[in-house]
Write a structure and sequence with these properties.
single chain; 88 residues; 3 helices; 44% helix; elongated
Length: 88
């Protein structure tokens, strides 16, 4: 069973991952991943909205926390799917 804290953390981590993808300089699959990430982020909740939801529905959401030690969060490093070939 998912707890409110686990559910909220998943939403926050996915939002962070989508932000990384939407800001990536490396375009993969002709921009498909980036354009989908931008479209999803348009409707994704912000921390202030999650906080309001947690106040109204504490059985569903938990208040978002910022970078607690020991917790996994979305990484900020972008690794290209297909490395660039450099001909020298």
């Amino acid at each position: 069973m998912t707890t409110p804290a686990e559910r909220t953390k998943a939403v926050v981590d996915v939002r962070n991952f989508l932000q990384v993808l939407s800001n990536a300089e490396e375009v993969t699959i002709r921009g498909l991943v980036q354009s989908v990430a931008i479209g999803l982020l348009r409707h994704y909740p912000l921390d202030v909205e999650l906080d309001a939801s947690a106040s109204a529905l504490p059985g569903v959401w938990a208040h978002p926390t910022v970078g607690c030690s020991g917790e996994l969060t979305a990484c900020t490093r972008v690794v290209p799917l297909y490395p660039k070939c450099t001909d020298e």
